[in-house]
Amino acid sequence: MVARTEELRPPENRLAQCLGRLANRTSALTKLQADLSALDSQRADLHQKVQDVNLDVSNLQAQLATLKDLPTSPPSPGEGPMAALAQLLLNSMGAGEAFSAVKTQLESIGVDVEMASPDAAGTWSAAPRPWRPARSAPSTQ
Questions:
Q1: Residues 31 and 39 sit within 8 Å (Cβ to Cβ)
Q2: Percentage with pLDDT > 90 across the chain
Q3: How far apart are CA 31 and CA 20, in angstroms?
Q4: Alpha carbons 86 and 128: distance in angstroms, whole number
Q5: Neighbour-count burial for 83-103, b at 16+ CB within 10 Å, e otherwise
Q6: CB 83, CB 115: distance < 8 Å
Q7: I need a labelling partner for 92 at 20 to 30 A (CA). Which of 5, 23, 116, 135 fits?
Q8: Which of the four pLDDT bands, split at 50, 70 and 90, describes residue 75?
Q9: What's the CA gap between 15 and 106, in Å, rounded?
Q10: Of the candidates 135, 124, 132, which has an alpha carbon nearest to the alpha carbon of residue 86?
Q11: Mean pLDDT confidence for 6-18
Q12: Euclidean distance between CA atoms 71 and 69, whole angstroms
């Protein structure tokens, strides 16, 4: 019935309807093509990111394998400000040779001593840091 009614309509009305539908479909086609182009660009960007991350993962796995193969040793004890002060004090008093005895005594009573010991010549392997007074705030007078 719709087809018969459509045939009875004047040709000008059918032409206008056809032109309107053509314009709508052309607009939709243009929009879909632009969306597809944007998605292709996004896909290419995403593909590049996947390749970059894959390369990073491969590098990190190789680095991990290399690090696992290295011999492990315990970290050397750090030299803190108190250790540097004790070294400076013992050295200035001429008691550098007594250092190992003091260190042994401190360790025997349970004190964690993280100090470098003097070498055979009686000099310290690591020079103590020089003392600097604390900076005071500038006066506002």
A1: no
A2: 38
A3: 17
A4: 9
A5: bbebbbebbeeeebeebeeeb
A6: yes
A7: 135
A8: very low
A9: 105
A10: 124
A11: 90
A12: 6
- Does 62 share its domain with 18? yes
Examine residue 73 and state whether it is found in any structural domain, yes or no.
no
Q: Give the count of domains, the chain.
A: 2
The domain in which residue 35 lies consists of 2-68
**pTM of full prediction above 0.85:** no
Structure tokens at 27: 């607009």
Tokens of 138: 């500038």
What residue has token string 């995403």? 46
Tokens of 23: 């314009």
For the segment 93-119, the average pLDDT, to the nearest whole number, is: 69
**Who has greater pLDDT, 46 or 4?**
46
Which two structure tokens, joined as six digits, stand for 65?
């394998």
